[in-house]
Amino acid sequence: MSCTMFWNGTPIPFRNGESVANALLIAGISQFGTAFAGQPRAVFCGIGLCQGCLIRADGCLTEACLLAARDGLHLSPEAGGSDV
Amino acid sequence: MSDAPVIVVGGGPAGLSAATEIARAGLKVLLVDQGQALGGAVHRQPIPSVKSVASAAQKRRWDGVMAALAAQTDKIKICLSTRFCGLDHTGAVLLGGAINQLIRPRALVLALGARETVQPRPGWTLVGVETVGSFQTRLKTTGQAPAGRILLAGSGPLLLALGAELTRLGNPPAAIIEAGRPFNHPLTALRLPFSYWAEACQYIIRLRLAGVPILNASHLTAIRSDSGHLLAEVETPHGHKQFTIDHIGLHDGIRPNDIGLPDCAALPVIRVGDCHEALGARAAIADGRAGGAALAAQLLGRPAPAADPEIKRQRDAQARLAQIYTHNGAERLHHLPGDTVICRCEARSVDDLRALGPSPTARQLRLDGRFAMGPCQGRFCADWVNQLSGTKPPQSGIGAARWPARPIAVADLLAATDDTLGDIL
User: Fold this and answer.
1) DSSP labels for B232-287?
2) B85, B138, B413, best to mutate vs chain A, most A CBs in 10 Å
């Protein structure tokens, strides 16, 4: 397993067992999108309560802090509009 | 029906201890957790390639929980990456994720832990501002401190704990901004259990040796974004200070994570650990055991077990801690600038709240104000909206318990297999 996922097509390495949020933060990506009122989507509570880190993962809207990173996962920012 | 498992939600110390006791009494348990590993927040385990940063005392506590669980594994099925979505009035439980099912369990144990309270401040929605607990769980799983300068602000011993851990991992915080005056209550502090003392001393010594300033009776009043950094404005008893940093950790205490959990007449439901009463990890084990044993006794028609004195001991200790850290920071809510965001989900501000007029009803707050209507369901705004608008939770205020427990995708709802039909037919 190469332990690589993709953020907007850019390869992001991760360690086995790491969450998508942690792998992105370690790779220097801290804004995951923009919520519909214009506020940035980013990690806030880190435990799945605040819904601040919503991200598109293989097309599905989900919390980056709860999602396990996996090989070949395609991530993209969520630009609001269709909120949850 | 008697063959149905008891569902325990939450794989932290409380949930695991409850599951152990229920299984010990002879009942089947299905334990689910949304995470990728057991541990919960306080005992969050490192990813496989990383060495644990837990203290010796924390490791002992966790090993004890896991050893007790290991003796009952034949009766406990554990499903990770599985979320509890809610409970309907018929007693059916919806699970999502690795298990996507509607199940009618024999009983439900909610061990969902705590949520952090974080007081709103101008700029608290900026990227780089997180809760102290968020930094702590990341540090525990990845074994590394974030790069860049970090400021910790708010109130409570968790600020010292994270500060000490960051220091140990080579990135001491720029400062700790504490709203209370914890060192002004020596007599109350003396009555804390020894383990609290030992822990606090370790943290303070490590922080002092690293030269981390601990500013008491001080408040982080505003955060601004400035050429790739964060500018933090701090009020201290000796004047105003400004910090240029990269990350800010905020924490103003913990509350039970009990939003979206209405009671259900059709099913025995109990809450254990911080989800029941936010008393911390030590009490969570005792409360999980007591709650699990009492539930099993109820289901099997046996006499209720005696109460565990440890819970009262921890309740007293937490009350003393609250006294030690007491401060008037909540009054600052009433003097926030009008454009300060209160509701993080929908960016609703103090002015939006004031526009609803004096004494708005819960209905006005929700429908006109849009407060507590976002995906966090009021977990991070309801307390402040209720305080600012003078309403009282949970009956008249916002943030009252109602379905669901978390946002659910329609696709997941449609894909869920319904295992309750057999009961009805």
Assistant:
1) EEEEETTEEEEEEESEEEEE--EEE--TT----TTS-EEE-GGGTS---HHHHHHH
2) B138
Neighbours of B416 (CB within 10 A): 18
B300: its two tokens: 């099997």
* H or E, element range at B13: helix B13-24
Identify the sign of the CA torsion B29, B59, B36, B274: positive
- Dump pLDDT digits (tens) for B183-236: 898 888 889 999 898 899 999 999 999 999 999 999 999 999 999 999 999 999
HSE, CB side, 13 Å, CA atoms: give it for residue B388: 29
* Closest by Cβ to B347, choosing from A39, A60, A66: A39
Residues of B within an 8 Å Cβ radius of A: 34-37, 41, 47-50, 81, 83, 113, 115-116, 125-131, 133-135, 137-138, 141-142, 144, 146, 257, 341, 344-347, 374-376, 379-380, 406-407, 409, 411
Contact A16 B144 (CB under 8 A): no
Type and span of the H or E element at A74 = strand A74-76
Share of residues in chain B with pLDDT > 90 (%) = 79
Nearest to A17 among B36, B129, B406 (CB): B36
Q: Which residue has the higher pLDDT, B411 or B156?
A: B156
Structure tokens of A67? 């999602």
Distance between first and last Cα of chain B: 13
Which of A15, A39, A83 is nearest residue B125 as measured by Cβ atoms?
A39
CA-to-CA distance for B411 and B288, rounded, in angstroms? 34
Given a contact cutoff of 8 angstroms between Cβ atoms, the answer to whether B271 and B405 are in contact is: no
Evaluate whether B3 touches B28 at the Cβ level (below 8 Å). Answer: yes
Least confident of A64-78, B187-201, B246-260, B396-410: B396-410
What are the tokens at B224? 């601004």
3-state helix, strand and coil shares in percent for chain A, rounded to the nearest 5: 10, 30, 60
What global pTM score does this model have?
Answer: 0.95
pLDDT tens digits, one per residue of B271-286: 999 999 999 989 999 9
A50 interface with B at CB cutoff 8 Å: yes
Query: At B110, is the secondary structure helix, strand, or coil?
Result: strand
Across the interface, whether the CB atoms of A40 and B127 are under 8 A apart is answered yes
Per the prediction, chain B carries an average pLDDT of 93
